[in-house]
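Worked example 2:
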Amino acid sequence: MSRENTGSEHGRAGRRERGARNTGPLTTQLPRLTNRFAPVDILSPEQVERILDAAYALLETDGMKILSPRARQAYAAHGALVDEATQMVRLGRDIVEAMLAKAPGSFVLHARNPERDLHVGGNVVNFGPVNGAPNIRDLDRGRRYGDLEAFRDILKITNGLGLLHWQGGVVVEPVDVAVPVRHLEMYRAHIELSDLVWAARGVGGVQARDALALSAIEHGCSIETLAERPTLMTVTNVNSPRVVDEDILDSIMIMAEHGQCVVITPFTLMGAMAPVTLAGALVQQTAEALSIIALCQMLRPGAPCVMGGFTSNVDMKTGSPAFGTPEYVNAALATAQLGRRLGVPVRTSAVNASPAPDAQATWETSFSLWAAIMSHSHLINHAAGWLEGGLSASLEKIVIDAELLRGWAEILKPVEFGDDEIALDAIRGVAPGGHFFGSPHTLARYENAFYRPVLSDWSNFENWRDAGERTATDRALDVWKKTRNAYVPPPLDPAVREAVDAYIARRKEEIGG
């Protein structure tokens, strides 16, 4: 039985009824965030070059196992050494650097609402949600397999809280929908429930082509013209170490050929799928990512690409992935530093390995998020709702993360230091030993003077006790329910909705789902 369904949780439910907190859904969308801090560099220039030299040497002398014949043909056409018998592809440094020079250092993915276009690169910070979790969980219903209702609930809550800059892809796996047509229902939900940029499923050519077709319908253009105004991303992995399977490559190639964003993320867990040392894992991660960025540029020069980093460690006692660790922090900082040297945008994650939405989940996520922001990473995936090393999406964790993300958004705002902020007249207007509560300077500003939390409880102990002694996790249950129930999707042209439904109905009939 899951912890959420134990007797102690029923006791919590009783306290929830006695101590409801007056918290309503947020309706303001986080603005585009610019990082005003200098990036934290942990590698010396010499260390950066040593890692890159080793990554290029690995690609040239050992190579990647590329399981797609079409991808191997593309590599061969651009001078790579291809061994068809072993499916190994070896890329010289000159080839990779020539392709890398074609990749844009920044770009824009266009949302249905132009005010929510996704700017990738420079000093812009973007938050995205949990992705790829097979399970969904909340305090009321416990841990269970994901379904389409949970998928839609996550979109409603994250969009209702307004805390993300793109709405993700597979925010939880809807296992109640047949696998061959599952992606169609996910894409429908993205289009119906939000006007942010969304992500195509990162495995399979069918999934990529359907994403292109539906995005074209949503944006009122042809598939061919999407490349002039890209709208989609796909976040996908390498089968580390140094293998990329055919389904992943099909998705990557179709997206790249149509000018859509490919976020390529090697899955390099130190001690498992990569060397146990940080430097060695960074060498492998960089080589794997560069091999796919090069492929994208071979297929369509200028195609938007992002170098993903997911290097962390494992628990050497059990083999389980660990996230939010000191090793993860160092890997995230180093990955972004390598990305700056290479001139490509970088994706990291705000992850944790906690089995519950508790203090451990919060401190591990806080470490990860700090590293992602202070490294100047551009896309921060899994920033809301990730739990159990990615095995679960948690509705309470979305709200806990909302507090973290909104707090960081406030921290990133420029601090004003004009005469009004210096407030010398206000200081002079209060007698020594007095207070500023009644100062005209305070009264003119108090309503919007400070950050207002969505979850934090600033009550004194007695008031908190009398309201039911409810923890932040308990309070988060109320917030996500109110947010979900109050959510109103943005407008969608009825003709677009009809065309999306017709396309999905036709494809389901063709696929047989």
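Confidence is low (pLDDT under 50) at residues 1-25. The CA atoms of residues 462 and 469 lie 9 Å apart.
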